[in-house]
Records
---
Amino acid sequence: MTWTDEELVDRSKTGDKESFNQLVRRWERPIFALAYRTLGREEDTRDVTQETFLRAFRALPGFKGDAKFSSWLYRIALNLCRDWIRKERRTPVSQVPEGVELEQLVEQHGPKHDVATAEDLAERAELSRGVAKAMERLPAEQRTAILLKEYHGLTFQEIADMMNCPLSTAKTRVYQGLTLLRKHLAEQGQFEPPVGGGAGKRPSRES
Amino acid sequence: MMHIADDQDALLDYLYEEGDPSERLRIARHLQDCAACSVAVLELQSVRGMLADWTPPPVKLGFRIVQDAPWWKPAGRFPLWAQAAAAVFLFAAGMAVSQVDVRYGEGALTVRTRSAAEPLSSASMVPVTTRQDNIALAPETSSNPDFGALEQQLRNDLNGRSDADDILRRVRAMIDQSEAKQQRQLAMRLADVVRDFDTQRRADLMQVQQNFGQLEGQTGQELAHNRELFNYLVRTSGTK
């Protein structure tokens, strides 16, 4: 039987460690991915991921279920990432996955890439590096908003709640982030305007 | 219709399929007719497509909680004060049960336990000496030096006297004397045992009292802390 997050949280509150471990198994990869794209270092990301679940476990009695459990976890992870960046006084390092073989990339991307050539894989790895670099150049709020939207599927309202900002601000951060990202990628020579032209050309009103 | 490229909210709702479905349908129709807006949407969709290529490393995680949370207490667990009360009760019950009554009589040492409700209820009996009529049968095996001396005295007396009644009387007197001496020795030993036991009991009682004092001190600190916290909440809530 598959328990919902809410059911597992309720069971965990009664001291059932195994229920909480089910939540860990369910959410450790998304949390790791979020922290990795924020920090960019695998070892630091592991520490932050582990600490996220430890803090969640300790703070579980205070979780009233007002937000989704996953949103609560994301918030803890993002706070930890922010603290880590402040503490270490480092800038986040966006990297292409460390130690990732091209074949592993193929496996991750599923059947549609099964026929990818070595040139395709090399190109994709280069593109991944470029995206990481362009993301790194974004302001932190825009980067976080895009991460939550693109990779974790949060609604704009959930992003607004998590970032303690109005809904319109959350949307603006995503929009401006995407626009800036397009600009950075173009500067890096990695963004080809869609066929049909007019890249970067803003349509005027009533045109 | 205005260009959706100028309407950030509408553009994002369309891109991420949020908001009113009828509004998204309206935008889709507009995109069919407006090349400029189509390009703007395609550009953002292209950026989103490129983001998909940025993947974290394929690592093995498997985090697992192995210890109980500090906040968790089993439902049946008693609070600290109840545990302390139970400990005191058990200690008192143990003291009542362990009031040992030791008596010496009829050639045997009798150990009885005496509870407050039923004095002299028998708990166990431990014979530690032989009966009188065994003394003459197995003197060699007796470890008591008094019996050896008695035997020697009897032999001497029997060699020198012929009056059986007198001998018997003297033997009885010596046996009574020896028995009285043994009783005194046992009484002294038992007195030592009782004294040691009483000393240990007093030490235990003092330890219990000290522990209670510590518990009361901790409880007082917690109360003081809670009082401060409550006062702070009252103050802060009053200022808003």
---
Amino acid sequence: MLEQAVVYAFVALVLIGGFMAAFSRQVLYAIIGLGITLLGLAGLFLSLGSPFVASMQVLIYIGGITVAIVFAMMLSIAMSLHPPAPDARKFGFAIASAVIFFGAVARLISDTQFQIVSPAPEEAWTVGALGHALLTHYNLVFETLSLVLLLAIIGAILIARKEKTTS
Amino acid sequence: MTLNAYLMLSAALFSLGLIGALSHRNLIALLIGVELMMNAASLNFMAFNHFVVTDPVIGQIFVLIIIGLAAAEVAIFLSIILRLYRAYHDIDAEKLTEQRG
């Protein structure tokens, strides 16, 4: 278990990054906000007892996905340099729907009684147990995910390749 | 932190992602909003796994699946943006109303 203050620092990171990602008009700032949020979430996963998932979050999300989004921004730079004027009506609708959603879910959460059980012992959270479960009981999930990733690679190449000019 | 605090944080993160996905016109900003919502879901899975379900493996597997699917999604999205930018020189979601095969 991490110190409580460190956990609250991670919560602050998540919220600050989320606000940056949702409200900034410059895409680069939004991407940086996404990275900050992901870092805070990795810390929260650590406090929830899973160092492996936290490190995967940092490796794949921050190291891979965020960088890929930066590449996407650089390859389509015109709109990122000159962001269009915000549409106040659309923004109002977005805020209203988010507030309604958050209010409903918050009401639901505070009304529900969850049966808290004592957390599993530390040694149950090892990477070994996770790998064993992935290759035995959850093997179908594992194979499906690898198939999806393979199809995504092939599809990305097919979509992005240059068309042969016939003329 | 208690379970309810984690769930509230996750709901707030999802709402921020909803704002990002609904209010922006840039396709990349929409993608960032969707990523925020997926991360709110994975935070929920980890919190429930820690506090409510005794099996410590299944929540981690869910989060790993979400991370893998997000990677696949971003790869496809990147190629679509490349293609759109080559064809239209624009990635404004409100101008891209025409689709041809």
